[in-house]
Amino acid sequence: MHYLLKLVNQLQGWVEQRFPNWAHQRHRKKWERHWADPEYNPFWKTEQPQKELVEAIESGWFQKGQRVIDIGCGNGEVSRWLAEQGFPVLGIDYSAAAIDNCRRLSTGQGKPISFEVADLCNDALRL
Predict the structure, then answer these.
(1) Is 62 helix (H, G, I), strand (E, B) or coil?
(2) Distance (Å, rounded) from C-alpha 110 to C-alpha 65?
(3) What is the full DSSP assignment across 65-95?
(4) Is there a smaller number of Cβ atoms within 10 Å at the N or the C end of the chain?
(5) Residues 116, 120, 73, 81: what is their CA dihedral angle, to the nearest 10 degrees?
């Protein structure tokens, strides 16, 4: 069974290398499905920021008032937390569903946060 899974993964990698635009669209649709599902709860998603980020802010390594760009912001939990700490935040994700969630979940929060759909693989990206 392990050998079959390895073979399937190699085949998928080969196809994605040969057809990068198709692969990119496939991955994008996958993330749209995930973030559009209210029950989506990946193992890495947390309501609290990572301890390293908290320590960097508490130690002054991240200076207050500096603009922060949260790349791959998902539902924007970290973006909202950073805004509460006094940082101007731009959260970006390439899933429009994720950005819709961010905007909905941030409504009424005292600190303004910008959320934008952005595809970092797009050569014409302008923020």
Answers:
(1) coil
(2) 16
(3) T--EEEET-TT-HHHHHHHHTT--EEEEES-
(4) N
(5) -80
pLDDT per position as a tens digit, 71-118 = 999 999 999 999 999 999 999 998 999 999 999 999 887 777 999 999
CA distance 88 to 56: 16
| pLDDT for res 63 | 84
Indicate the length of the chain as a whole number.
127
Structure tokens that stand for 93 in this block: 């994700």
Q: Which two tokens stand for residue 113?
A: 């946060």
CA-CA-CA-CA dihedral for 127, 69, 100, 51, to nearest 10: 170
What tens digit of pLDDT does each residue of 56-70 get?
999 989 888 889 999
Report the alpha-carbon distance of residue 93 to residue 36 in Å, rounded: 13
113 with 84: CB under 8 angstroms?
Answer: no
